[in-house]
Design a protein that fits this description.
By secondary structure, the protein is of the alpha+beta class. It is 26% helix and 25% strand. A hairpin with a 6-residue loop joins strand 25 and strand 26. The N and C termini lie far apart (68 Å).
C-alpha cells in the first residue's frame, strides 16, 4: 500500500457537505432568541447627519432598538484623524459621529424580532442631512484616461516611484515607440454568499459567526474595538461561499452586529444586501495607466515607462502593486514607474483577485501586443526576444521562471501557429475570429503560519489551523499534505479550519495559503512524529525502548529501525499505550536569507480566441488555454479548477464588469445582478489549464506557488488582444463594450 497523496487529483473532502446542504455558512448559525439587524445607509455622498426620527420606528411592530451615533456604545479604540491603515478604518463608520464620508455609509441600525420587521423599520426611518457635493471620479467630466505628464491630479498622493537607467531619454531616442493610455473600470467582487455576521455576547465574551478570510485578524479587530482581551473573542467561519478578497478585512457591519447584540442583550444576525455590498465591502479600484515602450527595429526593448493612477477613499488609503510587474516581466535597461493615488469621497477599495497585477499587467501586455504589430513580429516571439535572465527590478535571480516553457506548452495546445496575424483576416461565416496572447505573473508570497496535529488512538489524525476556505479546496489540499507527511491514507486525516482559537495563520488571500499554511501543516506533522518517536523510545513496553532517534525512521505511518526487518509500530500502537492523544504544533516561515537571494514569482501564458459579430458588436470567448509555472501542484484537479475559475473572472473583467457611480452623490446605479454583469454559463467557452513541471526548492518547504491570482491576471489582456486581432480596433478601456467594436 502506498500513501502518497500529493500530486493526486483527489475529490473534495468537503464536497458532500456542500452539495447536501450540511455545510454551514455565516448566516446559517442561528442562535436561540436571535434578533435581526438591518443597516440604514446614507443617501448622500458627503456631509453630516442633521437629525434622525427614531421614535416612530421604535413604535413599529417587532422593533427592539434603533442604533445611531446618538445612542451607540462608544468604542474603545478610535483613530484621532483620518487613518491610512484599512485594518482600523472601519471604525470611522461604526456610528461614532455624525460625519458622512460616502454614499451608503451606515448611519443607523434597526434591530427587530424578525428580518421583516427590521426591514420595515429601516425603510421607515427618516434621516436628515446637510449635504456637500462629493468627488467620486478620479478625472473630471469629459476628461480622457490619458495621464498628463505634469501630474495626475493636484491632490494625488505619491506612491511607489521607481527607476533604472533613463527611460524617458531611451524611449525618445527609440526607433520604434508605443505611447498609449489604458483604463479599467471600478469592479465589485459579487461572490455568491453575501457578507453576514451573527454576534452573541456571554458577559464580556463575544462570539462571532462571520464571513471572514482572516478570522485571526477579525478577533484582534473586535478585541481592540471593544477593549477586551483577544482571548475573549471567538470568530467562527468554517465555509465561505466565494469572496475574491472582499472579506479579507473586517468591515463595519461586523462591529455593528456586535454593538447591536450588546445593546439588546441577545444574539443578533446582520446580513448585508447585495446592494449594500457595493458600498460597504470594497471594490477593485478604477485605474488609469500610461505605457510607453521604446524598442529597436528587431524588437529589443530599450525603454519602458509605466505611469498609473488609482483611486482610494479620502478617509483611508488603499494601494496595490499596480506598476510592480513592469520591472521584472521583460529585459529592459531603462525603466521608470510612477504610481499615484487619488482620494475620493467613496468607500475604500479593497484587494480583488489578482490585485495590482491584474490591472497593471493588462496595460503592459496590451502595449506589448501593440508593439508587436508596429514591428511586424509575432507577439509570442516578441516576448521571447525580451525574456530576462534575472529580475532586473531587484538584480536577483528568479527562484524559478518558466514563462517561455508556458508559452511553448500553451501555444501548441491552442494552435497558435494556425493564426493568420493580419487583423480581420480570420472568419467563421460572417463572424470575425481573433486570437490573442498575454503573459501573467504573481508573486510567490509566504507568511508565517502555524498548525496543530493530534494523533488519535484509532491511528487517525486531526489537523487544525485558523485558515479559511472560500472555495479553492483548502480542506482537501491540507488533508493531502498531512496524509503524505504522516504516511496515512487521506481518509484517516481530518482537517479543521475557520476558528480563531486554532493556531494562527495569515489571511486566506494573496495566493499564499498553500505555501504558508501547507508548510505549517507539514511542520506540525513532522513535529508530532518526533513526539511519538520520543514516546516510544521512553516506553519500556515499546520495541524501540531506549533506541537512538537517529536509528529510527517513519515509513507509511509506521516507526521502523533503519535496515531492520520487523514491521515496526504504528501510530495506533504507540498512542494506545500512551493512553491519550499525542499532539504537537508546528510553524513555518520563509528563510530570510533565502528570500533575500531570490526573486520569487509564478508565471503563466494565456491564449484566448474570441468571435465578434461585426454587425451588432457582441463578443464571445470561444476558448482559452493557460499554462502556468507554479511550482509543485498539490492537487491537479483543484489546481485546474482554480485556474479556470480565474479565467472566468478574467472574462468578466475584460467584457462585463463595471460599477457605475452617480457623480451627484456616489451612488452605485447598477448595484444589482441585473445590470452589474458577470459571466454565466453561456458566456464561458472551453477553458483549459495546463501546468509546467517546475521544481523550486527556495519558495517554501513544499515548493508550491499560488494559483488563485495568476489565472485571472493574464486573461483580460489576452481577450483584449484577441479583440484587436478580430476587428482591427484597439480598445484600451475595460470592459470592452459593444459600442467599442461595432462597425460604424
Amino acid at each position: 500500500m502506498t500513501t502518497n497523496s500529493i500530486g493526486k487529483p483527489l475529490t473534495r473532502v468537503d464536497g458532500r457537505a456542500k452539495v447536501t446542504g450540511s455545510a454551514q455558512y455565516a448566516a446559517d448559525f442561528n442562535q436561540p432568541d436571535q434578533a435581526y439587524a438591518v443597516v440604514v445607509g446614507a443617501t448622500i455622498g458627503l456631509g453630516r447627519v442633521s437629525g434622525i426620527d427614531a421614535e416612530d420606528v421604535l413604535g413599529m411592530p417587532g422593533v427592539i432598538a434603533v442604533l445611531t451615533h446618538l445612542n451607540a456604545p462608544r468604542l474603545a479604540y478610535l483613530p484621532h484623524k483620518a487613518v491610512i491603515d484599512p485594518a482600523v478604518g472601519e471604525r470611522l463608520h461604526a456610528l461614532q459621529d455624525d460625519l458622512v464620508h460616502f454614499h451608503g455609509q451606515p448611519v443607523a441600525v434597526v434591530i427587530a424580532d424578525t428580518l421583516d420587521h427590521a426591514d420595515h423599520g429601516a425603510a421607515r426611518l427618516n434621516v436628515r442631512y446637510i449635504a456637500k457635493e462629493p468627488t467620486v471620479e478620479p478625472v473630471g467630466p469629459g476628461a480622457t484616461t490619458v495621464i498628463p505628464a505634469a501630474g495626475i491630479q493636484p491632490d494625488a498622493w505619491i506612491r511607489a516611484d521607481t527607476s533604472r537607467g533613463d527611460a524617458d531619454v531611451a524611449v525618445a531616442r527609440a526607433p520604434v515607440r508605443i505611447d498609449a493610455a489604458y483604463g479599467i473600470a471600478r469592479e465589485n467582487h459579487n461572490p455568491m454568499e453575501p457578507h453576514a455576521t451573527v454576534a452573541a455576547w456571554d458577559g464580556d465574551r463575544l462570539t462571532l459567526w462571520s464571513k471572514s478570510q482572516y478570522v485571526v485578524n477579525e478577533r484582534a479587530e473586535m478585541a481592540a474595538v471593544f477593549g477586551i482581551p483577544a482571548d475573549d473573542v471567538q470568530v467562527i467561519c468554517p465555509f465561505i461561499g466565494g469572496a475574491f478578497g472582499t472579506s479579507l478585512r473586517t468591515w463595519p457591519h461586523v462591529t455593528l452586529a456586535a454593538m447591536a447584540s450588546r445593546k439588546v442583550a441577545r444574539p443578533v444576525k446582520l446580513v448585508l444586501t447585495r446592494k449594500q455590498m457595493f458600498s460597504l465591502t470594497g471594490h477593485r479600484p478604477r485605474t488609469h495607466q500610461r505605457i510607453v515602450l521604446g524598442s529597436t527595429t528587431d524588437g529589443k526593448l530599450t525603454g519602458l515607462v509605466h505611469e498609473g493612477m488609482g483611486e482610494t477613499s479620502r478617509h483611508e488609503e488603499f494601494m496595490e502593486a499596480l506598476t510592480a510587474a513592469s520591472g521584472l516581466m521583460y529585459a529592459c535597461p531603462n525603466l521608470r514607474t510612477r504610481y499615484r493615488l487619488v482620494p475620493l469621497d467613496t468607500g475604500t477599495p479593497n484587494h480583488m483577485r489578482g490585485p495590482g497585477e491584474a490591472s497593471g499587467i493588462f496595460a503592459l501586455e496590451c502595449a506589448m501586443d501593440e508593439l508587436s504589430y508596429e514591428l511586424g513580429i509575432d507577439p509570442v516571439e516578441l516576448r521571447r526576444l525580451n525574456e530576462p535572465t534575472i529580475d532586473e527590478s531587484s538584480n536577483k535571480p528568479f527562484s524559478s521562471r518558466s514563462l517561455l516553457e508556458c508559452y511553448a506548452l500553451a501555444a501548441d495546445r491552442f494552435g497558435w501557429s494556425r493564426r493568420n496575424p493580419a487583423p480581420r483576416s480570420m472568419r467563421d461565416g460572417r463572424l470575425l475570429i481573433g486570437m490573442g496572447a498575454a503573459s501573467a505573473s504573481y508573486p510567490a508570497y509566504h507568511a508565517p503560519a502555524s498548525a496543530r496535529v493530534r494523533l488519535l488512538a484509532d491511528g487517525g489524525a486531526e489537523v487544525e489551523a485558523a485558515a479559511s476556505d472560500m472555495g479553492p479546496g483548502t480542506y482537501t489540499s491540507m488533508t493531502q499534505v498531512a496524509a503524505e507527511t504522516l504516511g496515512l491514507p487521506p481518509g484517516r486525516v481530518r482537517f479543521r479550519l475557520g476558528r480563531s482559537d486554532y493556531p494562527p495563520t495569515p489571511s486566506h488571500g494573496g495566493s499564499w495559503t498553500m505555501a504558508s499554511v501547507g508548510s505549517a501543516v507539514r511542520a506540525a506533522c513532522i513535529a508530532v512524529q518526533q513526539e511519538v518517536m520520543l514516546r516510544a523510545i521512553a516506553d519500556q513496553r515499546s520495541a524501540f525502548f531506549d533506541a537512538m532517534p537517529s536509528t529510527l525512521r517513519w515509513l507509511e505511518g509506521r516507526l521502523l529501525r533503519e535496515g531492520g526487518s520487523s514491521q515496526g509500530e504504528s501510530y495506533r500502537d504507540i498512542v494506545a499505550r500512551a493512553g491519550e492523544a499525542i499532539e504537537a504544533k508546528g510553524s513555518a516561515q520563509r528563510d530570510a536569507e533565502v528570500a533575500g537571494r531570490y526573486s520569487m514569482h509564478a508565471f503563466g501564458a494565456v491564449f484566448a480566441e474570441v468571435a465578434v459579430d461585426p454587425d451588432v458588436g457582441t463578443i464571445s470567448v470561444r476558448r482559452a488555454v493557460g499554462a502556468y509555472g507554479a511550482g509543485r501542484i498539490i492537487n491537479p484537479r483543484l489546481a485546474a479548477s482554480q485556474c479556470t475559475g480565474g479565467m472566468v473572472g478574467g472574462i468578466g473583467m475584460a467584457l462585463m464588469e463595471r460599477t457605475m457611480l452617480d457623480r451627484r452623490d456616489g451612488r452605485s446605479v447598477n448595484a444589482h445582478m441585473a445590470e452589474y454583469l458577470v459571466p454565466v454559463n453561456l458566456d464561458i467557452g472551453v477553458l483549459e489549464a495546463l501546468f509546467v513541471e517546475e521544481h523550486d526548492p527556495h519558495v517554501n518547504p513544499l515548493g508550491v506557488k499560488g494559483l488563485g491570482e495568476i489565472a485571472l491576471v493574464g486573461m483580460a489582456p489576452a481577450i483584449a488582444n484577441a479583440v484587436f486581432h478580430a476587428t482591427g480596433k484597439r480598445v484600451r478601456d475595460l470592459p470592452i463594450r459593444i459600442e467599442d467594436v461595432v462597425a460604424t
